[in-house]
Amino acid sequence: MTLQGSLQIVLVVAILLLLAIPLGNYLYRVFTGKTVWFEGGFAAVERGLYRLVGVNPSVEMDWKAYLKALLMVNFVMALFAYLIFRTMGRLPLNPDHIPSMSWPLAFNTAASFVSNTDWQNYAGESQMTILGQMVAITFLQFTSVVTGLVAAVAFLRGMTNRKSPNIGNFWVDFIRSITRLFLPLSFLLAIVFVGLGLPQTLDGAVTVHALGGGAQTISRGPVASLEAIKQLGTNGGGYFNANSAHPYEDPSALTTVLEIIAMGLIPTALVATFGKFIGNRRQAVVLYVFLAAMLLGGAFFVYGAEVAGNPLLHHLLGIGGPNMEGKEVRFGLPLTGLFTAATTAFTTGAVNAMHDSLTPLGGMLPLVFMLLNMVFGGVGVGLLNILMFLLITVFIAGLMVGRTPEIFGKKIEVREVKLATISMLVHPFLILGATAVAVAVPAGLAALGNPGLHGFTEVLYAYSSAAANNGSAFAGLAGNTLFYNLTIGMVILLGRYVSIIAMFAIAGSLAIKPVTPAGLGTLRTDTFTFGGVFVAVVLVVSALTFFPVLAIGPVAEHLQMVAGKLLP
Amino acid sequence: MTKSAVKTVSKGIILGAVADSFRKLDPRVMVRNPVMFVVEVGVVVTLILSVSPDLFGGHYGPTQALFNFVVCVILFVTVLFANFAEAIAESRGRAQAESLRRAKTDLLAKRRTKDGSYESVPATALRQGDEVLITAGEMIPADGDVVRGLGSVDESAVTGESAPVIRGAGGDFSSVTGGTKLLSDELVVRVSVNPGDSFLDKMIALVEGASRQKTPNELALSVLLAGLTLIFLIVVVTLEPMVGYVHGSIGVATLIALLVCLIPTTIGALLSAIGIAGMDRVIRFNIVAKSGKAVEAAGDVNTLILDKTGTITIGNRLATEFNPVGGHDEGQLTQVAVLSSLFDETPEGRSIIDLAKQKGVEMAREQFADAKVIEFSADTRMSGTNLPDGTVVRKGAVDAIKKYLAEKGGTVPSGLDEKTERIAKEGGTPLAVVRGDEVYGVIYLKDIVKPGMRARFEELRRMGIKTVMSTGDNRLTAATIAREAGVDDFIAEAKPEDKMRLIRAEQAEGKLVAMSGDGTNDAPALAQADVGLAMNSGTAAAKEAANMVDLDSDPTKLIEVVGIGKQLLITRGAITTFSIANDIAKYFAIIPAMFSGILPQLAALNVMHLTSPQSAILSALIFNAVVIPLLIPLAMRGVKFRPMGATELLVRNLLIYGVGGVIAPFIGIKLIDLVLTGLGVANI
Q1: How many structural domains is chain A composed of?
Q2: Do B413 and B428 reside in the same domain of the chain?
């Protein structure tokens, strides 16, 4: 590791946080109905949209009504995308004559994109038409992230309500998120990306005659616009199969920095929004310090592991130095390390290096971030996970100070603990259960790209990525089979919606509770002490849950590697 | 404070608890505690596996059956330890119930009939509203209020206090409890409860734990523990197919051992004991809480409303200063003051004599045997003495004395108003002393704050609890006492409605309020408060409205109840944290052991250098079992609660139970492994 490399990591994270905090304050204004810059313009567009959709923006919804609208909209969108994928071969904007998808693949892809996961069992350049990229993929990349965002906002309202069951209007929140946040930001970023060399065209692939003599087909399309929302919306589904390692998606170190910042922008901003909602800056500061430390720690962990390289290569082949397999030289190790940590922290799932080729420990880190699923996390849902763990921490720590635990003045009772426990259970259940099934049945084993412990990690990674709605792949796994399309699709849907439903129920129950004013005897959650306890609880609970699988996968592989053995 | 009759754990109790531990093995009982139920299922499965080790397939060595059996035994002992913890907690209450029941032998009552005569009926036939006659030496047959008569009652059967108390008609000392004994005089009591609902019945049910329901907090914690158990269940269940992938297999007994080590058995085993012991602590403190919920709520209290008289101050005003006026010196004033109070038996009067004694002025009553005592009357608001030589000495309220002077033609000396004003301003009561037509000075009577109260309120403040003093005094006096006692706020000239209003206002802000009271007019406020502590000496209405009754009738005990409530939660939280923290070391023991034949490189994780895979697993399992009885005393006694801010308290408890919980098992498991190795059984 070099000083210059370390500075790259620290500076990018610093810039990210500096941009995120004002954006968080802006989001607070948007969702509390305060006027913002260009209010007149936004409001006019929104009024038109409300009339078009036929909603009355002044109607307030309780948690059930809000959740019902959210789930219904998600279902309709998923169905729409599914139908596009099944028929796109016969629809226009298909210059490369790409066929429609099979039903399992269409199900998997629809589930994946409606839930902000963007796991791709298809290769963009050969299996997705331009129409599919635009009206299904890019469309869902906007709406899926908005779904997560409004869920978090609705939860924050419930948590800070004073004995009122209403948590806002879904339609208003949904439309405002697009008009006031994602459209303007994506438009700006897409323009910048075009300037930095990303293609934006409706033309199909070109065939060029390479210097060596052979012919080469180069795929193109509206890449810049997709890339912008891919990162801003923590989606991660790339235009091309190689994702951000592809030079058209991420041509330079500068674009990779922009992409890291773009994917982290809204998840980090939401911490500030949260602080504004509860009227406690310190709380936001404490969370920023601990979560940013985890993010940085993760980036340095990958960086360090890759710099250390592979001793086996050294012993057997005499090749020393860092592990460069699967990496792009234009980004270098530090930005690869940060991108890897960031894409799993923010559950984006874009990759600028092949995670499959990282050293065992370097590859364990993105896995760990997905298992934790709360290092800032994806837009909205990340904050919900943070709040779920806060609730559990407050409950245990609150008992230890001798009071019925309270979170931001609201008492945590049986109902909240029950729902938070359900939300906490889903993640390990899906990951461990699905992995166990996949490594035990022939259909699961047939798709493995690597034998031995690395193959195990591939499967574990796939289901972790699905359950965390991350979408990044460890590669190696040939996922486009009936078994994986269906199981990954199911894990994605359950991982997304069960915890959202549980968290909405908590919001509904917290909303109607009175707020107890904080006193000396109240456990303060905005201290660094509590922040430390919070991180410790998350790490211990997650470690206890996932230690055995990590031991079988990356830990054993690492120990095997340093012991100088190839395969067991 | 007096303790109840039963307090220590005797040999008999332990034997009884051991027997109960076996009785509680009934799966229908066990299933109520999901964590321990999982362990019990583990016992059954490992028992079967020690007969036929290859029941679920696999090929095992000849010692596998023995290993499985050892695991089975350890698990069985673990369940027994958990049951024992609960049984021992219950048995203490049961012994106490026995002694209460003795007070409730079959009694006969003299019930008043319509024509006014009394008929003899069994006490069980008494109904609410009946009137019964009790004469000296008889047991009081049922709870009720005295409607006629005055007598002394021995309430030791209920309160443990041997000194008799006075009970009489009217006022706030009219309630009597069934099962207590009238020592003198005659009482007519109106029965206030139907059979089965009496105070004694409730108390017996309570200490026996028969009416014990899980408190809201305990329920919430149970849910979390069940959730953790489920997580670990899925961890262990999914392990076998995953290990199958790397061409290995882990024995079912080992998987069960891992599961039991991971699920929070420590807190699961002790949770109900903690709750029972918490209630027991309240009872042993001579407070009867009508539900565990009330005790828990006490720990959450934000505002404490305390009556001034009897709670914050000792209840009587005492003389603290002699202030001479009009050319007289302190000595002369003291002489006259003593003369005026020589035959005054009120506490104020006694305090004047005491203060004079400290100043060296003492007079014998015998010297003034012929003196005429003038008792205090509401009309004159003065009291005093007429000596045989014609000297007239009076003391009384300053304005009353002024009026008396005007009648006698005396003059008001200079300085009287000034000194009076000063005393009033400081919250004291000025008492003017006059001899003949000459005012000698003013006695400063002061409300005395009970010793130690200031420190107590300081503690409460550090715990984040606001104290409010309620008094009938005027604002000035109230403010002085409030300042002196160090309470945060006060209500002066308080009427019962004012207390009610304050409670409602605080509750509207989301705060929990506790108060104590004894009078019938306190009843609505006691019912409204989240924690209402009624005095046993108070009226039946107050006791009915409150959710706790203090048998010693000491209102300051409200403060202790808050501490017990907090202690209850802290103990649960601490043992939960300890239980979860323990898992880290257990993983380091079991994972390398479990994978020893499958992924040998994981031996690097065997940081404790345990002798063999078998001894690693057994050591972890034995530690897991042994820690339960080791923590029983802590569960029963409760984690010591120190009044301090929440964050400090968190750090302290985390260091002890969190960090300690991480480290302790590393040491414990290693030690057990050394012992097993030393005994030569490490490789079974």
Answers
A1: 1
A2: yes
**Residue B310 near residue B552 (C-beta atoms within 8 A):** no
Containing B541, the helix (H) or strand (E) segment is helix B540-545
Task: Read off the tokens for A317.
Answer: 């082949």
User: ipTM value of the model?
Assistant: 0.92
| Residues B574 and B438 occupy one common structural domain | no
**pLDDT (tens digit, 9 = 90+) per residue, A225-261?**
999 999 999 998 888 888 999 999 999 999 999 999 9
Q: Give the number of C-alpha atoms closer than 13 A to the C-alpha of residue A281, restricted to the C-beta side.
A: 3
Q: Do the domain assignments include residue A73?
A: yes
Total structural domains within chain B: 4
Which chain A residues touch B587 with a CB distance below 8 Å?
A: 544, 547
Domain containing B133: what range? 127-194
The reply to whether B199 falls in a domain is: no
- Answer for the pair A465, A434: CB distance below 8 angstroms, yes or no: no
Which residues make beta-bridge pairs with B434? B394, B439
Q: What is the pLDDT of residue B493?
A: 83
- Do you know the residue count of chain B? 684
Task: Provide the token pair at B44.
Answer: 């059954």
Give the distance from residue A116's alpha carbon to the nearest chain B alpha carbon, in angstroms: 26
**One domain for residues B490 and B381:** no
Which letter, b or e, does each residue of A54-64 get, where b requires 16 or more Cβ atoms within 10 Å of its Cβ? Answer: ebeeeeebbbe
> Quick check: is B202 in a domain?
no
CATH of the domain at B521: 3.40.50.1000
Q: Does A556 touch chain B (CB under 8 A)?
A: yes
In a domain, A265, yes or no: yes
Cβ-based contacts of A568 with chain B (< 8 Å): 246, 599
In a domain, A567, yes or no: no
Q: Is residue B684 part of a domain?
A: no
Hey, what are B227's tokens? 């959730």
Cβ atoms A516, A411 nearer than 8 A: yes
Q: Judge whether B447 counts as a catalytic residue.
A: no
Single-letter amino acid code for the residue at B192:
S
pLDDT at B633: 92
Here the tokens at position B34 are: 């999901």
Q: What are B615-650's pLDDT values in tens digits? A: 999 999 999 999 999 999 999 888 888 877 788 889
